[in-house]
């Protein structure tokens, strides 16, 4: 069971002890952060589970025996070292959630059979090495969430953009043209770029009249600006402070 070049060895006993029953009645194998480098074959004894969490391990490959898990609805493989998926992934027709975020998947590593997952609602391919995504992903008509962030995508196929039920599509931090840095917005406010100080005697009559006109307009604005209101004076009001002043000598004596 110790960690070695092949990672931690998972026995059937360990796997059974990692089984959890969720509030919805589904059974989940929770094998996250266990140093697994090779998909445990002993899991075939538990192939009727509905959910498997193998995230945060050291998996490089998903074997074709994944097709034995026909009841699987939820599969979390994020934060491994997976660079390709087997075609058999497409046989998991009940799968609704597939998280492949933070792996080493390339475009070639995505099999065409991925598009056979017609019940898939959440697909996370973020933080991988994808330069493009297949246009056939547009056939996943039940997709609600699609993660494509932190890849090398330069285009999103129209078939994917127009998925009928898509609600959230994260494509941040990709070199997409539509996310190129926009030009600085045009400043519509007229601002002074240069200021020249001259004496009044050096101005011609027309310039002098213009300056005097603008100065008069400025004075009008200043006259229209309300000044600070005067502090109200309540002469008949006795405040604690006024009483204290009258009696302070008596307090000092006490």
Automatic annotation (TrEMBL):
The keyword Ribonucleoprotein does not apply. Residues 232-246 have a biased composition (Polar residues). SMART domains: LRR_TYP. It holds the Pfam family LRR_8. Keywords: Leucine-rich repeat, Repeat. Residues 223-254 are annotated as: Disordered. One of its GO terms (cellular component) is cytoplasm. This is LRC18 protein. The gene is Lrrc18.
């Amino acid at each position: 069971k110790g960690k070695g070049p092949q990672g931690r060895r998972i026995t059937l006993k360990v796997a059974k002890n990692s089984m959890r029953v969720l509030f919805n009645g589904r059974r989940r194998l929770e094998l996250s952060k266990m140093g697994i480098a090779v998909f445990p074959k002993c899991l075939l004894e538990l192939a009727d589970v509905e959910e498997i969490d193998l995230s945060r391990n050291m998996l490089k490959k998903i074997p074709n025996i994944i097709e034995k898990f026909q009841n699987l609805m939820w599969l979390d493989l994020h934060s491994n070292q997976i660079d390709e998926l087997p075609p058999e992934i497409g046989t998991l027709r009940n799968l609704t959630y597939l998280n492949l975020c933070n792996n080493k998947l390339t475009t070639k590593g995505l099999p065409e059979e991925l598009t056979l997952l017609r019940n898939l609602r959440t697909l996370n391919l973020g933080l991988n090495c994808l330069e493009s995504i297949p246009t056939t992903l547009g056939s996943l008509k039940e997709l609600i969430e699609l993660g494509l962030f932190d890849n090398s995508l330069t285009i999103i196929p129209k078939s994917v953009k127009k998925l009928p039920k898509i609600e959230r599509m994260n494509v941040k931090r990709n070199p997409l043209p539509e996310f190129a840095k926009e030009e600085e917005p045009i400043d519509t406010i007229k601002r002074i770029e240069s200021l020249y100080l001259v004496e009044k005697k050096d101005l011609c009559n027309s310039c002098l009249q213009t300056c005097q006109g603008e100065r008069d307009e400025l004075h009008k604005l200043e006259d229209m600006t309300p000044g600070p209101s005067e502090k109200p004076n309540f002469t008949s009001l006795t405040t604690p402070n006024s009483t204290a002043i009258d009696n302070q000598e008596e307090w000092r004596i006490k």
